[in-house]
Each structure stands twice: as structure tokens, then as C-alpha cells.
């Protein structure tokens, strides 16, 4: 495991898992298991979700490529590995057996990626799995409470969208890191500002209070793990406004 946590280390973790999967399985089944979306009943929906996550992996690979160039590391040391990774995470492989993808994840490819993770800056700490599970549980509790709430329909719709934002960020986290949580919070703050009068008028409801607790937990978690001071300060300022609105 890399001593640094960054885009390269997260890619390495996901692709190392993929490299160990059975070559007899379908590519869809492999990514299904890695991305933990087996409970989705629709095969078409699974394919959409897998494609979305593979796109996230591509984005992280491009971030690593850009950072390596900025670090003035000779491109010949990693270009072949990056090209192999692009092939392994291509959506074109999804309808085929996984042996068509795993052939690109040779030890030397993963080793090159691991070297990149050591060269590039340490961006954040890992979030404890128990913390992630706690956030998921809080979101599930909030979603259940909406089934029997007497909040205005527009506010229910807003909270449901925030639940979607949070679940998406949690799904992104293993690939994109804690920045996914911060970006979700920024989007939520903008929406809450637009609906501030209605939110303030209903901030004594349990559902709005629970929403505040969830975002508070997310904000505090992101502040602890993200090492870039400016990002942490932005989170603190944003949460100060959000906390005032929801309480």
C-alpha cells in the first residue's frame, strides 16, 4: 500500500483488486463486484452505473497524467502503463469476458502506477470505514423519515436530492477521494441558499435537523482528512452558514 493517498494510489487500489478477479467472469460481473452494485436488479441500470464509475477512473488517470507532467517526470517511464490502464477500464470491454481487460493489468503496469503514487503529493488521510458507514446509516434514517413527513413537497424534493448527492459522493469516494464529499456539500449549500426561506421556516422539523446532522458529519470528516488548508477553510466557512440555516 502506498504511503501517500492521492489519485494514483486510489487507482492502484481499484485496479489491483480488478487484477485479482477471475478471468472466467464477465467484465460486467467483475466491475459489478468491485463497485459493489450487485443489488441493482436492472442489468441495463448496472451497465450505466459501471460506465459512470469507469469514467471516474478515467478522470483520475488524467489527473495523474497531468500531475506527473507537472512534476517533470519523464513520460516514457509511465506512458505505456497509462495506455494499458486506459484499455483495462474501457467500456468497450464490458460486453466481453474479463480476460480481455485483465491482460492489461500486468504487475509492471500496477508497479508503475504505485511509483506514481509515491512521487505525487500526499493529499489526504483515509476515512475510517466505520465513519462512512455511519454517514450511510444517517442518510438511510433520513430517507425513511421522509416517507411519513408533513414537510412541504418542494422541501421533500430538495432533501431527496441531497440524499442523492450524498450517496453519489460516497460511491465516488473510493475513486476520487474526500473531494467528492466536499463538492457535494458545495452543491448542497447553493441549493439551500436558494431555498433559504422555506428551509428556515421548517428548521424545527426532525427531517431538516437530521439533514443538518448529516452535512455536519460530512463536513467534519472532510475537514479532518483533506490536507489542503484552503479546501478545509472553505469547508469550515461554508458549514458555518449551513449550520446557521438548518438550526
Extract low-pLDDT stretches.
none
Structural class: mainly alpha
Number of helices: 12
**Which shape, going by the Cα principal axes?**
globular
Following the backbone from N to C, one meets helices and strands in this order, namely HHHHHHHHHHHH
Q: Overall pLDDT, averaged? A: 90
Percent strand? under 5%
Number of E strands = 0
For the CA atoms, what is the radius of gyration? Answer: 20 Å
Most strands sheet: none
Helix content: over 70%
Your description of this structure?
Helix 1 runs antiparallel to helix 6, helix 9 packs antiparallel against helix 11 and helix 11 (206-225) runs antiparallel to helix 12 (229-246). By secondary structure, the protein is mainly alpha-helical. The protein has helices at 7-19, 27-34, 43-70, 79-88, 99-102, 107-119, 129-146, 153-176, 179-194, 196-201, 206-225, 229-246. The model has no long low-confidence stretch (mean pLDDT 90). It is globular, with a radius of gyration of 20 Å.
